[in-house]
Automatic annotation (TrEMBL):
<dbReference type="GO" id="GO:0009229">
    <property type="term" value="P:thiamine diphosphate biosynthetic process"/>
</dbReference>
<dbReference type="InterPro" id="IPR013785">
    <property type="entry name" value="Aldolase_TIM"/>
</dbReference>
<dbReference type="GO" id="GO:0004789">
    <property type="term" value="F:thiamine-phosphate diphosphorylase activity"/>
</dbReference>
<keyword id="KW-0460">Magnesium</keyword>
<dbReference type="GO" id="GO:0005737">
    <property type="term" value="C:cytoplasm"/>
</dbReference>
<feature type="binding site">
    <location>
        <position position="91"/>
    </location>
    <ligand>
        <name>Mg(2+)</name>
    </ligand>
</feature>
<dbReference type="GO" id="GO:0009228">
    <property type="term" value="P:thiamine biosynthetic process"/>
</dbReference>
<feature type="binding site">
    <location>
        <begin position="39"/>
        <end position="43"/>
    </location>
    <ligand>
        <name>4-amino-2-methyl-5-(diphosphooxymethyl)pyrimidine</name>
    </ligand>
</feature>
<feature type="binding site">
    <location>
        <position position="167"/>
    </location>
    <ligand>
        <name>2-[(2R,5Z)-2-carboxy-4-methylthiazol-5(2H)-ylidene]ethyl phosphate</name>
    </ligand>
</feature>
<dbReference type="InterPro" id="IPR034291">
    <property type="entry name" value="TMP_synthase"/>
</dbReference>
<dbReference type="InterPro" id="IPR022998">
    <property type="entry name" value="ThiamineP_synth_TenI"/>
</dbReference>
<feature type="binding site">
    <location>
        <begin position="187"/>
        <end position="188"/>
    </location>
    <ligand>
        <name>2-[(2R,5Z)-2-carboxy-4-methylthiazol-5(2H)-ylidene]ethyl phosphate</name>
    </ligand>
</feature>
<feature type="binding site">
    <location>
        <position position="72"/>
    </location>
    <ligand>
        <name>Mg(2+)</name>
    </ligand>
</feature>
<comment type="similarity">
    <text>Belongs to the thiamine-phosphate synthase family.</text>
</comment>
<feature type="binding site">
    <location>
        <begin position="136"/>
        <end position="138"/>
    </location>
    <ligand>
        <name>2-[(2R,5Z)-2-carboxy-4-methylthiazol-5(2H)-ylidene]ethyl phosphate</name>
    </ligand>
</feature>
<dbReference type="GO" id="GO:0000287">
    <property type="term" value="F:magnesium ion binding"/>
</dbReference>
<feature type="binding site">
    <location>
        <position position="139"/>
    </location>
    <ligand>
        <name>4-amino-2-methyl-5-(diphosphooxymethyl)pyrimidine</name>
    </ligand>
</feature>
Length: 214
Protein backbone atom coordinates (compact mmCIF):
# COMPACT_ATOMS: atom_id res chain seq x y z
CA UNK A 1 0.00 0.00 0.00
CA UNK A 2 1.50 3.33 -1.09
CA UNK A 3 1.34 6.34 1.25
CA UNK A 4 -1.26 9.04 0.51
CA UNK A 5 -0.01 12.22 -1.15
CA UNK A 6 -1.21 15.70 -2.04
CA UNK A 7 -0.68 16.97 -5.61
CA UNK A 8 -2.04 20.47 -4.92
CA UNK A 9 1.15 22.45 -5.58
CA UNK A 10 3.88 20.50 -7.36
CA UNK A 11 7.30 22.12 -7.82
CA UNK A 12 9.69 20.85 -10.49
CA UNK A 13 13.19 22.02 -9.60
CA UNK A 14 15.18 23.43 -12.52
CA UNK A 15 18.92 24.12 -12.10
CA UNK A 16 18.92 26.64 -14.96
CA UNK A 17 16.19 28.76 -13.36
CA UNK A 18 17.14 28.39 -9.69
CA UNK A 19 20.09 30.75 -9.98
CA UNK A 20 19.29 33.21 -7.20
CA UNK A 21 18.89 30.34 -4.73
CA UNK A 22 20.28 26.82 -4.75
CA UNK A 23 17.94 23.96 -5.62
CA UNK A 24 17.90 22.90 -1.98
CA UNK A 25 17.18 26.43 -0.72
CA UNK A 26 14.44 26.81 -3.31
CA UNK A 27 12.85 23.54 -2.21
CA UNK A 28 13.00 24.48 1.47
CA UNK A 29 11.48 27.94 0.96
CA UNK A 30 8.86 26.65 -1.48
CA UNK A 31 7.61 23.96 0.91
CA UNK A 32 7.44 26.52 3.70
CA UNK A 33 5.25 28.58 1.35
CA UNK A 34 2.83 25.76 0.56
CA UNK A 35 4.40 23.41 -2.00
CA UNK A 36 3.24 19.83 -1.42
CA UNK A 37 5.44 17.97 -3.93
CA UNK A 38 9.06 18.59 -4.95
CA UNK A 39 10.41 16.89 -8.05
CA UNK A 40 14.18 16.69 -8.45
CA UNK A 41 14.84 17.19 -12.17
CA UNK A 42 18.40 17.66 -13.39
CA UNK A 43 18.72 16.45 -16.96
CA UNK A 44 22.45 17.10 -17.28
CA UNK A 45 23.56 15.53 -14.00
CA UNK A 46 24.89 12.01 -13.53
CA UNK A 47 23.00 9.44 -11.48
CA UNK A 48 25.55 9.90 -8.69
CA UNK A 49 24.95 13.67 -8.73
CA UNK A 50 21.18 13.19 -8.70
CA UNK A 51 21.45 10.85 -5.72
CA UNK A 52 23.48 13.45 -3.82
CA UNK A 53 21.04 16.23 -4.71
CA UNK A 54 18.01 14.16 -3.74
CA UNK A 55 19.57 13.34 -0.39
CA UNK A 56 20.23 17.03 0.24
CA UNK A 57 16.61 17.85 -0.60
CA UNK A 58 15.43 15.05 1.72
CA UNK A 59 17.52 16.41 4.56
CA UNK A 60 16.27 19.96 3.97
CA UNK A 61 12.62 18.83 3.96
CA UNK A 62 12.83 16.38 6.83
CA UNK A 63 9.87 16.88 9.15
CA UNK A 64 7.64 18.34 6.43
CA UNK A 65 4.85 16.51 4.62
CA UNK A 66 6.23 17.24 1.15
CA UNK A 67 6.47 14.34 -1.30
CA UNK A 68 9.94 14.07 -2.88
CA UNK A 69 9.99 12.79 -6.46
CA UNK A 70 12.91 11.85 -8.70
CA UNK A 71 12.44 12.60 -12.39
CA UNK A 72 13.15 9.67 -14.75
CA UNK A 73 16.20 8.21 -12.96
CA UNK A 74 14.97 5.05 -11.25
CA UNK A 75 18.43 4.08 -9.99
CA UNK A 76 18.80 7.49 -8.31
CA UNK A 77 15.29 7.27 -6.83
CA UNK A 78 15.98 3.88 -5.28
CA UNK A 79 19.45 4.75 -3.99
CA UNK A 80 18.38 8.12 -2.55
CA UNK A 81 15.28 6.58 -0.97
CA UNK A 82 12.88 9.25 -2.20
CA UNK A 83 9.10 8.86 -2.05
CA UNK A 84 8.40 8.62 -5.76
CA UNK A 85 9.74 8.50 -9.28
CA UNK A 86 8.14 10.17 -12.32
CA UNK A 87 8.57 8.77 -15.81
CA UNK A 88 7.65 10.04 -19.27
CA UNK A 89 6.07 8.29 -22.22
CA UNK A 90 9.50 7.72 -23.77
CA UNK A 91 11.19 6.53 -20.59
CA UNK A 92 11.01 3.16 -18.84
CA UNK A 93 7.84 1.15 -19.43
CA UNK A 94 5.52 1.39 -16.41
CA UNK A 95 5.57 -2.40 -15.92
CA UNK A 96 9.36 -2.43 -15.76
CA UNK A 97 9.47 0.69 -13.60
CA UNK A 98 7.06 -0.83 -11.07
CA UNK A 99 9.03 -4.08 -11.01
CA UNK A 100 12.22 -2.16 -10.22
CA UNK A 101 10.89 0.22 -7.57
CA UNK A 102 8.73 -2.34 -5.79
CA UNK A 103 5.20 -2.04 -4.44
CA UNK A 104 5.65 0.86 -2.03
CA UNK A 105 7.29 3.68 -4.00
CA UNK A 106 4.88 6.08 -5.73
CA UNK A 107 5.03 6.11 -9.54
CA UNK A 108 3.96 9.06 -11.67
CA UNK A 109 3.55 9.11 -15.45
CA UNK A 110 3.43 11.95 -17.97
CA UNK A 111 0.37 11.87 -20.23
CA UNK A 112 -0.29 14.15 -23.21
CA UNK A 113 -2.89 12.36 -25.34
CA UNK A 114 -6.23 10.61 -25.15
CA UNK A 115 -4.56 7.35 -26.16
CA UNK A 116 -1.97 7.57 -23.37
CA UNK A 117 -4.71 8.30 -20.84
CA UNK A 118 -6.69 5.25 -21.93
CA UNK A 119 -3.59 3.02 -21.66
CA UNK A 120 -2.97 3.81 -17.97
CA UNK A 121 -2.87 0.81 -15.65
CA UNK A 122 -3.91 1.98 -12.15
CA UNK A 123 -2.27 -1.09 -10.62
CA UNK A 124 1.10 0.28 -11.73
CA UNK A 125 0.72 4.07 -11.77
CA UNK A 126 -0.34 6.29 -8.84
CA UNK A 127 -0.79 9.70 -10.49
CA UNK A 128 -0.42 11.38 -13.87
CA UNK A 129 1.12 14.64 -15.00
CA UNK A 130 -0.98 16.03 -17.84
CA UNK A 131 0.40 18.54 -20.32
CA UNK A 132 1.95 20.64 -21.49
CA UNK A 133 -1.12 22.82 -21.12
CA UNK A 134 0.74 25.78 -22.65
CA UNK A 135 4.10 26.10 -24.37
CA UNK A 136 7.02 26.49 -22.00
CA UNK A 137 10.71 27.24 -22.42
CA UNK A 138 11.68 25.06 -19.45
CA UNK A 139 11.29 21.97 -21.63
CA UNK A 140 12.03 22.91 -25.27
CA UNK A 141 11.34 19.40 -26.62
CA UNK A 142 7.86 19.18 -25.13
CA UNK A 143 4.88 17.82 -27.03
CA UNK A 144 2.30 20.08 -28.66
CA UNK A 145 0.41 22.08 -26.00
CA UNK A 146 -3.04 20.66 -25.24
CA UNK A 147 -4.68 23.83 -23.88
CA UNK A 148 -7.29 23.92 -21.14
CA UNK A 149 -9.87 22.06 -23.23
CA UNK A 150 -7.37 19.29 -23.91
CA UNK A 151 -6.50 19.17 -20.22
CA UNK A 152 -10.15 18.71 -19.25
CA UNK A 153 -10.65 15.98 -21.86
CA UNK A 154 -7.52 14.01 -20.91
CA UNK A 155 -8.14 14.33 -17.18
CA UNK A 156 -11.66 12.97 -17.70
CA UNK A 157 -10.12 9.87 -19.31
CA UNK A 158 -7.53 9.29 -16.58
CA UNK A 159 -8.53 6.88 -13.81
CA UNK A 160 -6.01 8.49 -11.45
CA UNK A 161 -5.32 11.84 -9.75
CA UNK A 162 -3.85 14.32 -12.21
CA UNK A 163 -1.57 17.31 -11.90
CA UNK A 164 -1.46 19.80 -14.78
CA UNK A 165 1.87 21.12 -16.07
CA UNK A 166 3.18 23.43 -18.77
CA UNK A 167 3.48 27.22 -18.67
CA UNK A 168 1.10 27.56 -15.73
CA UNK A 169 0.91 30.66 -13.55
CA UNK A 170 -1.32 31.96 -10.77
CA UNK A 171 -3.95 33.24 -13.20
CA UNK A 172 -4.44 29.73 -14.63
CA UNK A 173 -5.10 27.92 -11.36
CA UNK A 174 -8.87 28.37 -11.21
CA UNK A 175 -9.24 27.09 -14.80
CA UNK A 176 -6.90 24.14 -14.21
CA UNK A 177 -8.80 22.97 -11.14
CA UNK A 178 -12.12 23.50 -12.93
CA UNK A 179 -10.80 21.19 -15.66
CA UNK A 180 -10.59 18.41 -13.08
CA UNK A 181 -6.90 18.39 -12.15
CA UNK A 182 -6.09 17.83 -8.49
CA UNK A 183 -3.10 20.13 -8.62
CA UNK A 184 -0.82 22.48 -10.51
CA UNK A 185 2.82 21.76 -11.38
CA UNK A 186 5.11 24.73 -11.94
CA UNK A 187 8.76 25.42 -12.68
CA UNK A 188 9.47 29.05 -13.54
CA UNK A 189 6.55 30.38 -11.45
CA UNK A 190 8.63 29.46 -8.39
CA UNK A 191 12.20 28.71 -9.51
CA UNK A 192 12.42 31.82 -11.67
CA UNK A 193 11.46 34.25 -8.90
CA UNK A 194 13.48 36.27 -6.39
CA UNK A 195 11.49 34.83 -3.47
CA UNK A 196 10.43 31.19 -3.91
CA UNK A 197 8.66 31.18 -0.56
CA UNK A 198 6.50 34.19 -1.37
CA UNK A 199 5.78 32.89 -4.88
CA UNK A 200 4.69 29.54 -3.44
CA UNK A 201 2.49 31.21 -0.84
CA UNK A 202 0.75 33.23 -3.56
CA UNK A 203 0.12 30.11 -5.65
CA UNK A 204 -1.13 28.22 -2.58
CA UNK A 205 -3.53 31.04 -1.76
CA UNK A 206 -4.84 30.95 -5.33
CA UNK A 207 -5.43 27.21 -5.04
CA UNK A 208 -7.35 27.61 -1.80
CA UNK A 209 -9.35 30.49 -3.26
CA UNK A 210 -10.23 28.50 -6.39
CA UNK A 211 -11.33 25.52 -4.31
CA UNK A 212 -13.46 27.80 -2.17
CA UNK A 213 -15.39 28.88 -5.27
CA UNK A 214 -16.24 25.34 -6.33
Amino acid sequence: MRSPFDLSLYLVLDPDLCRRHSLVETAREAVAGGVTVVQVRHKHASTRERIALAREVKDALRGTHALIVMNDDIDAAIEAGVDAVHIGQRDTEPTLARARIGPHMILGLSVNSDHAARMIDPSLIDYVGVGPVFATSTKPDHAKPIGLDGLARIVSLCPLPAVAIGGLKAEHIEHVLAAGAQGVAVVSAICGTDDPGAASAELWACIQDARGKR
